[in-house]
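Handoff note, outgoing to incoming analyst
You'll be picking up this chain. Sequence as last confirmed:
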Amino acid sequence: MTQMNRRKLLTALLALGGASVLQVPGVRAQAEKLVITTYGGSWEKFWRDTLIPGFAGETGIDPQLDIGLGRVYTTNLRAAGKENPPYSCLMTNEIYSTVLRDEGYFEKLDLSMLPNYADLYPVATKASDGYAAVGLISPIGIGYRTDLIQTPPTSWKDLWENPEVAGQLGLYNIQNSAGKMFLMLTSMIYGSGIDDLETGFAKLAELGQVYQTDFNMSTALATGEVAIAPFDFGEIARLRAQGLPVDCIIPEEGLMMWDQTFNICVNGAAREDAYKYLNFVLGPVGQDLLMREFFVSPVNRNVEVPEDLQRDVPVYGEAMAQFIDWDWKLMNDNAEEIARRWNETFGA
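Most recent structure output, in case you need it:
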């Protein structure tokens, strides 16, 4: 049967039987296409221009790319149901992955199909108990303007204890996972652990007036509206390249991070291709491409950070053990009350 005739047959069957016809062996296989996800803007451009061509060149697979955000992906999966997910391999933050994993949307990884999984740092695997892998880590330390903060920070406590910080501090708000991490971090440093939120909120109140944003801290740092804030090392690298007097340090208590967790959807189309894609992302080639584009820390032990990138990508090797473990279930289960307390604390 020619390719054209196969397409006509599939079209006719779909018209007669709707989505249920896809359960017919062979027909479903022809209809299946690997569907992967990423975000818009520079993320989409990189995926289309670099990552997908690299993957296609290695495997011959041409995936369909879906653009969205974690909230959108969550809504779409729930609307479609576990039997007919719209994605094959879903990339999103762990705070969303935790919820969807508990609801049964992801399969436990078949590690026989992911040889590169064995080469990952523990930070890329331990949170999901074998159900996912973190493919991108954007470390978050303390970023600051070197012309506005004369005493370089060494600790998260400096945001409270250095008088230079007062009135010049920026924080991501509670809608951003970095705001939630900062609350847990404060609870860990000053209380009995990351779940000691009463102590955390009490200490946050001591910071006084802070600048808040849900996404873009870079503009505020560039204009001098803030002089110091929790900051993505990669973004500091981009600001430095623009000539701004900025730096970022690894605090002695440990690092926060923006993670991108990759999950294989239960009953997703093109399952074998989904595993090939994830294996590519986790492998040396995929990780090197991501590192050079976004200044993320490579999660694969076999990827070396070249000397000319080490200032922009300072978290690698032994430093990959400095990330703090977070309790996203705690944040999700108490999201409404936490948001209320945060807004009450900062007068939002």
